[in-house]
């Protein structure tokens, strides 16, 4: 798997009505199969991020569970927890410079009986509170049909058509759908936790996020205003810079008598409202009435929106996993989501040029091999301030025969180039998350990174699955293989090959490495580097 984002998180953002995919889903495989997920109806809020120095809240007393992504050695555990003693509490003096380990189970709550993914009690409570606070505004603006966002199941209409009694027929009050979200801090070296919900619709090729709400747990963010972008750590709760237009918003900060801090960015056609609570949690609300179009489609009065935000209660969350971030790797700045990049003339031309050059180099190694179809692709979740990877993609065949569904064919492969920005060489083990573009699916054998004398780094992911006939079935057992090798060039770009075949074939990591060593550098504008947005 080559996406550093969690598969379930991507699909929950893309298709919030559908359950997340199984853990072993490889999003690169989805791309290989020709699918491109598009978010519809609802979209989780784009991330906030940046550096800052202002304190979010008072000192928090929290239980230490180890550094993010690390398992403590019981032999070196000074708390005595390895011997059954309760862990000591440690003070996290600066929640801004703290974060959580990635935890699949925290984000995806499973029903203990059915094992189905269900909403957590915290998410349901926040959704109920949000519907009560903002429901009337959403209905008055036309985003919802009524203040509780009633969904017509069709049962009542059908019953009426059939002449049946409809007195006991009820539609479903859906309110605001809220999900748990883990957002990368410093490119996945630590994580922020929050609960998000939104209302969005497609506007041409873009997704228009009209209303979004996010309740943030303490850790990894600052109340100091600054650009909302995942490029920086800690992340900013609210921006005082231009975003919806080129005009700087009117920004106000109010200290309330109950200890809360209210911040409002008035962009004219849109509003951002943030509330910082005494306990260290935060709330961010955004309302875009139609800035991109120049017309007001979903009007709201700022005082009413502010009152609704202030009606949201303060929550107490389990922050026992929050841990101070003592040391972070230096990661090259990543690209803020730009939906237009992969369709730009420069990206299209560079992708085609790169794959054409790769095809010529490939035939020097294997004269009858081909790779074609160069295209530019953005990898990752799209949205405000979210960081994505830029890549070129091609597909081809090797002069090696295999069998697909009983039919002889040439071995196919996928080739991908990764442009510099937002990653470092390495591989994520299964269910781990970090600043790596290579990742391991469940059941695969993953190795690396290892380094050549010239500074080139490598990783590999290999999976072998044997299918055997069951009782009474008459077919021969088959073994399916997949192998992906990724080369990280010292100049900052990377290239990978993913190949699959059935039964025996003369394919191994050395063979793919030989091909990758022959590949030319990708074509791209080295002067075009990621920048931090104004807002």
Quickly describe the structure.
With 535 residues, the protein is α+β, with helices and mostly antiparallel strands.
Would you kindly provide a written description of the structure presented here, covering whatever features stand out?
The chain has 535 residues and is an alpha+beta fold. The chain is built from 8 helices and 27 strands. It has helices at residues 7-14, 27-32, 104-107, 121-141, 155-161, 302-311, 345-365, 509-517, and strands at residues 60-63, 89-92, 98-99, 109-110, 117-118, 150-151, 172-173, 179-185, 190-203, 206-216, 221-222, 235-236, 250-255, 261-266, 270-276, 282-288, 323-324, 335-336, 370-379, 387-404, 407-418, 427-428, 438-439, 445-451, 457-467, 478-488, 494-502. The strands form 8 sheets. Strands 18, 19, 20, 21, 24, 25, 26 and 27 form an 8-stranded antiparallel β-sheet that branches. The protein starts with 6 loop residues before the first helix and ends in an 18-residue tail after the last helix. Residues 460-473 have a biased composition (Acidic residues).
């Amino acid at each position: 798997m080559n996406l550093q984002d969690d598969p379930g998180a991507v699909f929950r953002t893309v298709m919030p009505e559908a359950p997340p995919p199984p853990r072993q889903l490889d999003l690169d495989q989805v791309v290989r199969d020709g699918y491109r997920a598009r978010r519809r109806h609802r979209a989780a809020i784009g991330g906030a991020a940046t550096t800052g120095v202002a304190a979010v809240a008072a000192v928090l007393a929290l239980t230490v569970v180890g550094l993010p992504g690390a398992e403590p050695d019981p032999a070196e555990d000074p708390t005595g927890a390895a011997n059954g003693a309760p862990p000591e509490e440690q003070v996290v003096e600066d929640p801004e410079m703290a974060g959580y380990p990635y935890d699949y189970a925290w984000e995806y709550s499973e029903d203990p009986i059915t094992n189905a993914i269900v909403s957590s009690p915290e998410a349901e409570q926040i959704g109920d509170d949000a519907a009560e606070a903002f429901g009337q505004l959403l209905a008055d603006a036309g985003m919802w049909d009524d203040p509780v966002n009633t969904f017509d199941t069709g049962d009542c209409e059908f019953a009426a058509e059939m002449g049946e009694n409809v007195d006991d027929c009820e539609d479903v009050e859906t309110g605001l759908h809220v999900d748990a979200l883990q957002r990368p801090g410093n490119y996945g070296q630590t994580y922020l936790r929050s609960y998000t919900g939104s209302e969005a619709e497609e506007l041409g090729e873009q997704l228009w996020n009209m209303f979004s709400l996010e309740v943030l747990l303490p850790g990894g963010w600052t109340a100091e205003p600054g650009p909302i972008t995942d490029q920086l750590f800690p992340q900013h709760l609210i921006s005082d810079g231009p975003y919806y237009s080129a005009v700087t918003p009117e920004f106000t900060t109010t200290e309330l008598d109950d200890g809360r801090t209210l911040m409002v960015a008035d962009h004219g056609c849109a509003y951002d409202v943030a509330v910082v609570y005494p306990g260290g949690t935060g709330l961010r609300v955004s309302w875009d009435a139609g800035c991109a179009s120049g017309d007001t489609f979903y009007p709201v009065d700022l005082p009413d929106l502010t009152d609704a935000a202030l009606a949201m209660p303060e929550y107490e969350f389990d922050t026992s996993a929050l841990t101070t971030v003592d040391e972070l790797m230096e990661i090259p700045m990543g690209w803020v989501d730009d939906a237009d990049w992969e369709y730009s003339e420069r990206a299209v031309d560079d992708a085609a040029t790169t794959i054409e050059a790769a095809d010529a180099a490939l035939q020097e190694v294997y004269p009858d091999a081909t790779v074609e179809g160069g295209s530019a692709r953005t990898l990752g979740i799209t949205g405000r301030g979210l960081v994505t990877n830029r890549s070129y993609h091609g597909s081809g065949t090797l002069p090696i025969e295999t069998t697909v569904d009983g039919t002889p064919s040439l071995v196919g492969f996928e080739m991908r180039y990764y442009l510099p920005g937002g990653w470092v060489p390495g591989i994520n083990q299964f269910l781990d998350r970090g600043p790596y573009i290579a990742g391991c699916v469940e059941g695969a054998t993953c190795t690396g990174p290892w380094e050549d004398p010239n500074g080139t780094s490598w990783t590999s992911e290999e999976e072998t699955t044997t299918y055997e006939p069951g009782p009474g079935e008459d077919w021969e057992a088959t073994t399916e293989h997949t192998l992906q090798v990724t080369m990280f060039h010292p100049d900052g770009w990377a290239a990978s090959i993913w190949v699959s075949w059935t039964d025996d074939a003369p394919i191994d990591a050395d063979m793919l490495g030989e091909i990758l060593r022959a590949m030319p550098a990708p074509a791209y504008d080295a002067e075009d580097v990621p920048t931090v947005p104004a807002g």
